[in-house]
Design brief:
alpha+beta, three-stranded antiparallel beta sheet, 4 domains, about 525 residues, 19 strands
Amino acid sequence: MSQNAYEIDLYPTKAQPQLHIGNLYAAAYLRGFDPPRIETATVLEVGCGTGLNLLPMARTLPGAEFVGVDYAARPIEIAKSLAERMEIPNIRFHAADIRDLADDFGSYDYILVHGFYSWAPADAREALWRVAQGSLTPRGVIQVSYNCLPGWLQNQWLRDFCLEHMKRFPDRETKLREAWKLIEALASMKEADNPYPIIAAQTVEKGFATAIHDELAEINEPFYLNEVVAHAGAYGFQYLSDAVQKYVPGLQHLSTGEEILASITGEGGTLREQYKDFLSMRTFRQSLFTPASNQPSPASYLELLRHCRVTSPLRASATDEEGNRVFDSPLSVLGFHSNNPLIASLFEAIAVAYPAPVALGEVSDAMLRAVPSPAPAQVAEYWDLVEDLSRNGVLQTSSREIPIPAALPRKPAMAGIASWEALLGLPLTSLFHRSLPFPDPMHRALAALTDGSRDVPEICSTLASMIQLQKASGKPEIVIEGFPIPLLSSQALHGQEALLDDPEAIRGFLLRTVPIELERFRLAGLIVEPVAGEPGN
């Protein structure tokens, strides 16, 4: 756990849906627990980096309190600067070694520990559980991510290959650069029947900045689920579930795999999950824990699911050869077939509200009232399928209402800290806590101007003036809120050079294109209704 590595090369911190405390709340709730309300929660993130996971939450949950801690001082200074510039008062950052923290480092309802456990030395992991034991509230939830066995053994082969290769080179920078070249070379051999190209391609997809702190880190120790559960248990925590409900391909879906899992029914959910890891060769886990004294209600998963909100990118399309409707989407690698008309009606309701989630119980009750005398078997099949789709992440579950406007507001505003992220040239964080890349300078400028104080024509006029001003200045960039943006290099303006000398022509062009881009923002969960009397973010 070299401090220099994180000081020299910043870890690319970003928002991720599973790290939103609303997701932790929903996961615990669906297991029968009563977690603290997120609107007034206290939250600690260990290994917070530059704070870009916590800052969007702090902005959209002003009644909650957030604390970020990181071993490296440089990212913490950046996080503090961002919080100050964005005027977010309910967040604090500390540069500290977790081994030096007091047992009761405050009182927290949610503790996030992402990208730490497999990359920290043993005494730092012990310190984590010690701090959590003294600081997590009685109904609180802690999330811990780690590389998991046995699946990560294949990644270990790639890591070992790279570490051996790095021995040939003299300094850290050269070692990392040459290791990355090796990974890219391995990834290029896709036609080979060999696991190396697959694993290498997955690493390339992450990017160099992430890989140097993950695959190529000084420490990278994978764990079996039962090892982490036992470690947590020694400090008084019980396992809840994984933070991510998703379909994990593997042998567990074949009939013989199902028989193996059936043989351990009644022996505990953790053991069943461990068997699934063996059958699927899973490589990464994001485990949730709560104090052992925190006991769940006897309510079933399905009973609790009825009170949640759901959404999905899947849509009902054509029928297959057997007459079943096919539910799929270009936005998802998953799909399913069903001839149950109730499922089709649910996905129609989801499509109408998308991207906002729908209240599952309300939609289902209204749907069932509209069907004259639905067959009991059909209704039972509907609820069985809904539960299965939720457990496998096809139906994405939320316990919170997400304030996505049904149409573009007259004076739209960007969500959370997205306008600031645009100015900084960072991916934009949506209301779903997803980090979305919009690197084009036009998108950056548009997001910066969409602050709730302007309607669409006013946004277009301001953008047109900026384009004219940059062209007249002959400079490569225009400065917006103190940040340089190379507006004229936007892909949107390629081929439009003839318009740039005519203010009305460029404004007309923007009036045609800006509403389309703002609608893209809305569908991505990046647009909110402006708060009365508070223009801007």
